[in-house]
Amino acid sequence: MTAVRIPARVHRLTATLANQIAAGEVVERPASVVKELLENSLDAGAREVCIDVERGGKRLIRLRDDGEGIHPDDLVLALDRHATSKIVTLDDLTHIASLGFRGEALPSIASVSRLSITSRCQGSDTGWRMTAEGKPPEAALEPVPHPVGTTVEVRDLFFNTPARRKFLRSDRTEFGHLQEVVRRIGLSRLDLAVRLNHERREVIRLRAGLDGPERSRRVAAVCGAAFLQQAVPVEFEAVGLRLWGWIGGPEHSRSAADGQFFFLNGRTIRDKLVSHAVRQAYADVLPPGRQPAYVLYLEMEPTQADVNVHPTKHEVRFRDGRLVHDFVARHLAHALGSTSMLVPSADAPAYTPRVAGRTRGAVRFGGERIRESVGDYAALMGGGGNAASPLGYSLGQVHGRFLLARNELGLVLVDMPAAWRRVTESRLRLALEQGQLKSQPLLVPVSVELPPGLAGMAEEKPEPLRRLGFDVVRNGPASVAVHRVPALLKEAEPQALVKSALAALAKHDPDGATGSDLVALIPALTADATPTFDGQSREDLDRLLQQVDRESARYPGNPLWVQPSESDLEGLFKRCAPSPGIPSQRGKSL
């Protein structure tokens, strides 16, 4: 006989059980508690926070702030679910400016720990304390001495939920996660002074950064001095968005993504859209498997982003995700492409290649198709301020070496490395002959190991090196320190550049230090300075075309570009043999 199954009756969960279920989403480990408490302190206007931790946060977490405090009438209510002072109406959810607003953190923490809150408001004569041990508070408030602000003490985390407690890791591991939360929030609010003590030993002390130098020191304290020394400050503002911070160069890349900090309106986020935009910006300057390091702050109107997506509030939803993605990717790519991680100089060359790139065996078109006519493309590029060159407008690249362009007669194929070397040599020669070759200081001097004979050239030929734009000092029997390089070659590796310069000096041994004496050394310099062209923007490629055409009548040499006729192209497909018509043109010799 089949037993009749009686359906379970619907009943209301107890407040304690409901809070413990909610705690599973909000409180994962001690680090989660610190995150929620720190966000509450920031929302209360705190300028200084001190955190004391024992056993990685499992035994004790005590956070003291100098914020505005909690009114005594609100202390008990603060431990009710969905009780908050930060939103009142449904409209408030469309422009959330606070970090915590759900009203889940304190009751969730109280449901799985022994919690006490002591707080004093401005104008109050005394502070008030409330305690709760795994359930809503039952005892009345008690007056206690306390400065203006709030102290939250969390003891014995998960003492009443042993199944949760056994999943905690070692004290060292849990404190590592907690320390990372403090570091991230310390970066999110540079004006907040933070002190973290573990087992009564100070581990982190961050002073408030109120101006540029102090903020830089704050970033160096969190991310390391090595990051800040080579990082480039960036700041962009457009279409209601502002992006600022510091980006690390390719040489500071890492195997893990532990050096990436991104903040939206002061909130730490780990958003897939933003992460993809940053990776896209770095795609042409990092080898596979390497991760960039950066500290970036994105600011926008609160109405343009929904932070109420997940209880931890790490994920966000942008109202116009495509706009945000393109804004971040485009401006970061521009910053990475226009800097060589050197001290800024007004003597930068007209054509500035990217720092580095990966060669791909494909044509890069930048999103538009070749079907555009020259006139249409000229109209499209009209805002860039680039006049049309007789060589036309760039269409794309092949193998990172050949540039495809189109002019009124058809297709043009340019040997980019050869063209860049010829143009750069021409500019170096002219600057050298006129005594106007500028040098560029390196942010950090570079040490170069050399054969003893070459190292001695730095002492024997200081004046020719200076005329070439170098500042090289011998610092050992077989090494030199490079302080400055020619500004026109600032994209090259300083080590290779200096080796070439010293070897050329040793070989040619010019009699004097005049420009004409040193002209013969120029080809040796450009041979080791040729940049990687893959991933260049249309504007940069068009600028190179203009320079090739402008320099075409100066100096003799092999052709740098060819223009096949229509019959030549048809012959490649064996549709017909080359026939008379428009003749093929070879580039004018430079």
Describe this structure in words.
This protein has 590 residues and is an alpha+beta fold. The chain is 32% helix and 22% strand. Among the domains are: 15-206, Heat Shock Protein 90; 224-337, Ribosomal Protein S5, domain 2, CATH 3.30.230.10. It is built from 19 helices and 24 strands. The longest helix has 18 residues, at 171-188. The chain is elongated, with a radius of gyration of 32 Å. The N and C termini lie far apart (101 Å). The model is unreliable at 339-387 and 578-583 (pLDDT under 50).
Output the CATH topology of the domain at 15-206.
Answer: Heat Shock Protein 90
Count of alpha and pi helical runs: 19
Largest sheet report: 8 strands, mixed
Shape: elongated
Full CATH superfamily name of the domain at 15-206: Histidine kinase-like ATPase, C-terminal domain
Structural class designation? alpha+beta
- pLDDT average, as an integer? 78
